[in-house]
Amino acid sequence: MVILPIVHKNHILNVEIRLKNVEKVRSGVKYDDALESDIIINSNKFSESSFNVANDISAEVDFVRSKSLLNKNNSFLITTKVERDSDVYDVYEVSNIPKKVNDNLDKLYSRLLTDIRKKIPKVGNRGKYVSLKKLGIDKTLTSEKIALLQRIIKDHRDQSEWPLLFEEAGIMDVKDTIDFIREFDCVILSETTIPEDNFLDTLKVFGNINTREYKNLNNYYKMAINNTEIFTRLSYVHKLVYGKPLVIVQSNQKPKQLYKRVDEVEKTLDE
């Protein structure tokens, strides 16, 4: 799981980021021409490509894009790791990889592809935190660019004019960033929600003895604070462009029940 910690209403939430355009197509299989933990586009395999040894966080996305021109239906397969005490794996199909906006978003998308590759069927995989700031997602969402976007949308009600105006203002990457993020589902893992006060009390205890646990917990909290700021900007821009906030759903609720929650997160930008 790729986990985005954020802070909201005095609670720390752990939000799982998932690809929308992915579907499990086979369970418990093994093919002679397909290894575990691989990406396959037609007959092209990530495991046999130079991208697999590139030691680049965006290697998976780079491989997919390099082979997409040969793949008319713009979809590809991912095999997971094998089941424990077995040699079979699951197979997922991913379609419609978004167009490239920048390297930072590609790094995030690659993390999600890797997450599928590293799944262990019937077990899952270890949660891995993601920092939007470390990935550089915030670099596009500056206050100046968001203000320009807001002014254009306010002054020009005809949406057909927006692309050209965004291009002229040098802020098309802001709109493209939102379109890229729309390829993800964000799901709150309700059972992992932590009251912020309780967390800070625990952090203080470990801080008094300056242990490794304190360093890890403190880094986690700083990551959650930074993620909250960036996610709030993403949600605010999404509402400017599409008239509704980014949807975060809880794992045990229907999407529509969380619209109010996201609206509340957004208000921090308006205040």
Would you kindly provide a written description of the structure presented here, covering whatever features stand out?
By secondary structure, the chain is α+β, with helices and mostly antiparallel strands. It is built from nine helices and eleven strands. The strands form two sheets. Strands 1, 2, 8, 9, 10 and 11 form a six-stranded mixed β-sheet that branches. It has a five-stranded antiparallel β-sheet with strand order 3-7-6-4-5, with helices on one face. The longest helix has 31 residues. It is globular. The relative contact order is 0.15.
List the defining traits of the structure above:
271 residues; alpha+beta; six-stranded mixed beta sheet; five-stranded antiparallel beta sheet; 9 helices; 11 strands
Chain-wise SSE layout:
Elements: E1 2-8, E2 11-19, E3 22-29, E4 39-41, E5 44-45, H1 59-68, E6 75-79, E7 89-95, H2 103-117, E8 128-129, H3 132-135, H4 143-155, H5 162-169, H6 172-181, E9 184-188, E10 194-195, H7 196-209, H8 212-242, E11 248-250, H9 259-270
Parallel strand pairs: 1-8, 9-11
Antiparallel strand pairs: 1-2, 2-9, 2-10, 3-7, 4-5, 4-6, 6-7
